[in-house]
Specification:
heterodimer, A: Rossmann fold, four-stranded parallel β-sheet, 17% strand, B: alpha/beta, 2 domains, six-stranded mixed β-sheet, 15 helices
């Protein structure tokens, strides 16, 4: 069996966390490689959190919030979007494969999407790590 | 080298600027002037706050040395509103940093008149001191440097200046232009309403007029753009010598947080934690977290960084911070089409958003 990955997920309380909850209630299957941290809003996620995760040995990081336009606090995720985009753009400079860091928008009613997102992220992070081991 | 033989008989650009500043203070248009001035000892030139017109003599903004980014001084000077009017004579990178600080609400600019000027670039203090040490005629050194600037930048000039394409002060209130103007001529042009109000009657025309000026600027820009690096692939190697002395943070004009999350006591761990980390990771380099320190700084300063290179000058370990910051911040700034200090009306990229943008961020 393949080694389990350690992926940190920052989920906003209002959409993605509820979406993940719905995935559980609906019994959608997805890999158990993700550790969820609930945050009040994806706007709470400081880029430093993500750098810290990687520094402490996380295999991947996923930040998930409400769809743009649906933020519980009106505009929190618009700021997240800019901040995360900026951080992502910098990864190429310090040797972290871009595929290890993902952002997604999952609403409270998208249990299925949550399961799909996690599956895709796990696959991507796995591929990135396998790629770097080969080198 | 420049033809400076007959210099003593003619006026210099420095003296023309001096005369303008003298009038500004003498005629009471401002109450004080912040401007680089040569120390009585003769070598170093650093910012001085002058309130007595006679003390304007000896001021030398064109001297190719920058001890601090003067935006840091401006930030300290007008941290609260004052009744007096202060003119700050700043290099373009300092003008831009000051405008960023205004946007970041770090200084009160009602009483501040920003005077910018064409900057010929600087040497780091060490190289400057070495170059000027045994020179009798300090002004000839500046004149030679200006000649080099117009024809190709010397190798010893600060790296950030060698690739700087913002060497004219377009966003200042008043700007003193001399590139493309026959020495000792200068053109004083108001660039804002405040500039027009405060220097009424002292302007000497539109600086964009001479075509020679435009051509010269274009040539210098093209030459310097070629020197810009687009990427860094060995960041870890470059910052390896870092001793986390915090110099780069201290001198940065844009590092403004009152409470910094990079404080030593906040970055440190308990003894036990160090050992458990070492155990888990097999080894940890000490002092810890130098990479995290620099990445955090880049992340914080990146969108506002004006690439003045003062951090590189302050680094005791000769880490090429100027280049590193430039490459990173250019990437960030281009993402939001933002040029720090270009205009007071551009919104800071991380405090605003567009509803329809960056849809590519969601990639799963």
């Amino acid at each position: 069996m393949e080694k389990k990955l350690k992926i940190v997920g920052f989920l906003c309380n209002w959409c993605s966390y509820a979406g993940a909850d719905l995935a559980g209630v609906s019994r959608f299957q997805y890999p158990a490689d993700i550790r969820v941290i609930r945050v009040p809003c994806s706007g709470r996620v400081n880029p430093l959190f993500i750098l810290k995760c990687f520094q402490e040995g996380a295999d991947g990081v996923l930040v998930s919030g409400c769809h743009p336009g649906d933020c519980h606090y009106q505009e929190g995720n618009y700021y997240t979007r800019r901040r995360m985009m900026m951080l992502k753009d910098l990864f190429c400079f310090f040797g972290i494969d871009k595929r290890r860091f993902h952002i997604s928008w999952v609403s409270a009613s998208e249990g299925k999407k949550w399961a799909d997102v996690v599956t895709a992220v796990v696959e991507d992070v796995g591929a990135a790590l396998r790629g770097s081991e080969k080198q | 080298m420049a033809s400076t033989e007959n210099r003593s008989e003619k006026n210099t650009r420095r003296e023309s600027i001096e005369q303008f500043l003298y009038r500004l203070l003498k005629e009471g248009k401002v109450d004080a002037v912040l401007v680089p001035k040569r120390h009585p000892g003769g070598n170093i030139v650093s910012p001085v706050l002058i309130s007595e017109p006679s003390q304007i003599k000896g001021t030398d903004p064109l001297a190719p040395v920058q001890t601090v980014n003067a935006a840091s001084i401006v930030k300290e000077l007008v941290k609260e509103p004052v009744d007096k009017k202060i003119a700050a004579v700043l290099r373009p990178c300092e003008v831009r940093a000051t405008i960023e600080l205004i946007k970041l609400k770090q200084l009160s600019d009602e009483s501040l008149l920003i005077i910018g000027y064409d900057c010929p670039g600087v040497y780091n203090v060490k190289e400057y001191m070495h170059g000027i040490e045994n020179r009798e005629d300090k002004e000839a050194f500046t004149e030679e440097h200006i000649h080099d600037f117009l024809s190709g930048d010397g190798d010893l000039v600060r790296e950030s200046c060698r690739f700087c394409t913002y060497f004219t002060a377009d966003s200042a209130d008043v700007d003193i232009a001399w590139i493309g103007v026959e020495p000792p001529g200068i053109i004083v042009a108001a660039r804002s309403e405040k500039g027009r109000r405060m220097t009424g009657g002292m302007n000497t025309g539109d600086k964009d007029a001479p075509t020679v000026r435009k051509e010269t600027i274009g040539k210098i820009e093209a030459r310097r753009e070629k020197r810009q690096k687009s990427g860094i692939d060995n960041l870890l190697d470059l910052i390896q010598p870092c001793i986390r002395c915090y110099n780069c943070r201290e001198v940065c004009p844009l590092c403004y947080c009152k409470e910094c999350l990079l404080e030593p006591e906040k970055m440190g761990y308990t003894s036990e934690r160090y050992l458990s980390r070492a155990e888990r990771k097999k080894q940890i380099r000490m002092p810890v977290d130098t990479l995290l320190y620099h990445l955090t700084r880049i992340n914080h300063m990146g969108y506002s960084c004006v690439s003045c290179g003062i951090c590189e000058q302050a680094c005791p370990m000769d880490i090429p911070l100027g280049t590193i910051l430039h490459v990173f911040s250019k990437k960030i700034q281009s993402l939001f089409d933002y040029v720090p200090g270009r205009s007071r009306d551009d919104e800071l990229p991380l405090t605003t958003f567009r509803e329809e943008e960056l849809s590519e961020v969601e990639d799963v």
